[in-house]
Amino acid sequence: MTGMDTTGAHDADLKKELSATLHARRELGSEYESALVDSFLEKVDQRIDGSVERRVRRQLAEHQMVTARDSRGPKSTDTFGERFGFAIVSLVLAIPLSAIGGSMADLPGLIVAWAGIVGVNAFQASRGPGGLFGRRHRTADQDSDAWEN
Length: 149
Prior knowledge:
Shape: rod-shaped
Helix content: over 70%
Number of strands: 0
Mean pLDDT: 79
Largest sheet: none
Distance between the termini: 64 Å
Structural class: mainly alpha
Number of domains: 2
Strand content: under 5%
């Protein structure tokens, strides 16, 4: 069933309820009118509450799905602290690598060791959002602010 079919079915049910309430009012008289109206309005309230609850649940489920999709998406973990830490670790490891390369193959070994260190750091830097040289893109507003300062 589509949404219009269920709305039509609910409308038909409400019309039946209203017809039954009016029929009962004719049979019982005006002394029971407020009780009959209250009963009918309570049924309408329950129907509205059920409809609102279904819509809220559906929207909440959609929101949770969107949130779950966004949280699983790729995140940029390239923070300044990570880059700085990587640079420090590579410099600390450069000391023994330089010693090993220099003692085993003299100057060519030292050059190969430092080429490897520079290569690893260049690769790490190129992974970031700004590329190898990390230039930030400025908007037109930022450019005009730079001239004013």
